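Worked example 2:
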Amino acid sequence: MCVYIVIGCPPVTVSDVGKRLLVGRKLRSAQLGETLLPKRIALPVFASDALSSVAYAPDEILLTLSLAGLAAYAFSWKIAILVAIVMLVVVASYRQNVHAYPSGGGDYEVATVNLGPNAGLTVASALLVDYVLTVAVSISSGVQNAKSVVPFIDGHEGWIAAIATLVLMSFNLRGVRESGTFFAIPTYCFMVAILSMVGYGLFRIVVLDQPIQAHSAQYGIEPDPDYAAFSGFLMIALLARAFSSGCAALTGVEAISNGVPAFRKPKSRNAATTLLMLGTLSVTMLIGVVTLANLTNLRLIDTGHSHYTLNGQRVEVVEETAIGQLAAAVFSDFRPGFYFVVAATMIILFLAANTAFNGFPVLGSILARDGYLPRQLHTRGDRLAYSNGIVVLAFFAIVLVLTFRADVTALIQLYVVGVFVSFTVSQLGMLRHWTRLLRTERDPATRSQIIRSRIINAVGLTMTGTVLVIVLLSKFTQGAYIAIIAMSVLFLIMKLIRRHYDAVGEETALVADEDRLLPSRVHAIVLVSKLHKPTARALAFAKATRPNTLEALTVDVDPEETERLRSKWEEMGIDIPLKVVSSPYREVTQPILDYVKNVRSESPRDVVTVYIPEYVVGHWWEQILHNQSDLRLKGRLLFTPGVMVTSVPYLLSSSDKAERRMRRDDAPDVRRTLHQ
């Protein structure tokens, strides 16, 4: 029988008020339905990463092509079209995923169910690494864009990115719906800004026939000597590298399939619609930006490899992003338009990391539920968000931005690998899913629908598998190997965690009634150092439990002190026998351990309960002055089979302050289950 006890709200403290201001009021578990998202909020929450990649994917294409000089720029629009085709295929494939697996496991669930646990863990490790990189790349790109408006950031990019990550973490700790509402306006502003810039720029160039030139159009490009001969294998390798960098535009597409449970009903249909909106907007903006860059003769260089030239001579130029240059050129006669585009881009790049802050904690929770990550990642926080997962993601992202100093070009080489691993394995899993269903399905209409879905996923598998090979070949030596190593290490860690949980579960499982048998006898031992109130309380408590045998035990480290204790013991008329253990070397812990083990060896079926009087103090420095030998002794006794350790607390006056400090940690709606 289970008895549920509801505990009411505790008094509110000053520190609790501070936490509420930061995170918001606590939500009951029953309020989870209130956090579900409509499509207009789900789009910026789950698609901001893919949408924001428009701000740096064209840059990475042009930067890579600049290694071969201006001649290679002729391939930029072709690469952009290839990236767009891949995105549309992936979006179509993931629309099948959200209908087939709406529980929120996404690629991990698809791979685990259809290909086995190892495939699922491969996908999970790839996605977890990619989510961390998403935060690092998005925040770093936002910082780089902000430099054109706020020059003092130059030289401090890493620390600024770390602070921005902490701010974003605090917003996400307030919950998915609240953070999504906050992020919706900047995301829609970015869409309006980019589409307006592309539309107005094309209108000026095509309709009004106005010559618009980017600021960098006046410069030539001196290629990297290694790629100066842009032909043969070098040309193929460079184009493959540019294509793989441009595929950064696809990151974040899988987040919607992981976040289906966060949508309002009908969940699958709303998620599929949001995916379609994401694909349409991303492709439109990406093609528009690359087209405008070609029409305005925009140039970008990979600093340190290719160089700007003017009249045949190298020149040093302050590098600006493609979006910044295009906005300045298109809105040359309307400066508010320029500032609007730059500001919206800067903000969306910071907020694009929000996609990872929604994907990583959910995936971490599912993995924790399955025993592959620590169980703490499975619990929800005050705002029904997976708070522990949010904090873990922020920590690793901060480590990355500080290590790489928020350098987007360096981080982008680690990027994309993980997401295409998950894309490819997921599509293979979906292919097996539809094939398995076809074996049993007999209805012609349903079979036709399954065949159509299988064809879509087969095309997706072919496309993403090809891109994965290209990405691995073109980026491995550029830094992708670091991401692969990180995935492998994470894979092994998760396997070891699962092995540990399985071993603990097997070891602690009840076997018939053997673990519910009562011990033959209970032998209670109360540890005594001196006769005072804590000792008296421990003796009284031990006596109240009515053990079969009860005795007090002290260690003789000072004969005079031991004799005074004996005399006082007899003087007080205590009816519990006091046993003295000698200690020639003045050691306390080992003689007690030896005595307890001896009691156990004499009666192996008995349980020995050791009662330790312990001070409860209110200040950390008081803890240093008390209880140290008790802590060491407890640590040793806990490893002794058949021995139970009970601390008998005695509250000193300073403990009142500590008790008041801890009240703020009490939940207003705590439900405890007592099994009887």
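Residues 1-22, 28-34, 664-676 have pLDDT under 50 and may be disordered. The beta strands are 2-7, 220-222, 307-310, 313-314, 522-527, 549-556, 578-582, 607-616, 643-651, 670-675.
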